[in-house]
Amino acid sequence: MTASPRLERIVEITASELNERLGEALALYVTAMNYPPATVEQRAPMWLAHMMREDWRCVVALGEHDELVGIGYGYRGAAGQWWHEQVRRGLMQVSPPAVVDSWLTDYFELTELHVLPRAQGRGLGEELLRRLLEGVRSSCVLLSTPEGPSKAWKLYRRVGFEDVLRHYQFTGDPRPFAVLGRKLPV
Ligand SMILES: CC(C)(COP(=O)(O)OP(=O)(O)OC[C@H]1O[C@@H](n2cnc3c(N)ncnc32)[C@H](O)[C@@H]1OP(=O)(O)O)[C@@H](O)C(=O)NCCC(=O)NCCS
After folding, report:
1. How far is the CA of 168 from the centre of ligand 1 (A)?
2. What is the value of pTM for the model shown?
3. Domains and CATH numbers, the chain
4. Which of 57, 75, 118, 128 has minimal CB crowding within 10 Å?
């Protein structure tokens, strides 16, 4: 028996295209993360601000009827950004300055990657991730994810992400996180 062809299309979209579908994209995000629906209102201004950042890139998976099934985006990280400063603080505690700089000087922050539960487990997350990173010109990529095991962990390890920081607590979130990274290109 041969595998049936995938129905979803993966395409890169512009910031204004995401803006037009922001409600749908955030609904996908809260569904995938299993967050309360009110999270949408907190996240909307954050996602809009991210779109303005240098080298922002977004890829989406579109279903049969052009509905959003998956999304991934990120941008070039820089000093002064909240996530950058949090990671720097954590890394400085466990790594020599040369290691801190090797990760934080020229990186793409993979900010979001989500696939609707009904479409998970068919390789869509990996394809979104690879397509997103294909167009990145930074020398490495960094991300944070709650400590595993999870589908996200399995995916990041499969694509070659290594530990940068483990069991780290970001300000305001009690969950332990891992910061993972890998050199580019994939
Ligand atoms: C993390 C997430 C994006 C991964 O998406 P996904 O589409 O399920 O993941 P993958 O692309 O890695 O799917 C791979 C699985 O599909 C299977 N698969 C089937 N066909 C495949 C193909 N052609 N290519 C690759 N994998 C395929 C693999 O065997 C693998 O199965 P396994 O996980 O049991 O080993 C998704 O699970 C998600 O949205 N989770 C909730 C939100 C989240 O945690 N986001 C990350 C925050 S940091």
Report:
1. 24
2. 0.95
3. 7-183 (3.40.630.30)
4. 118
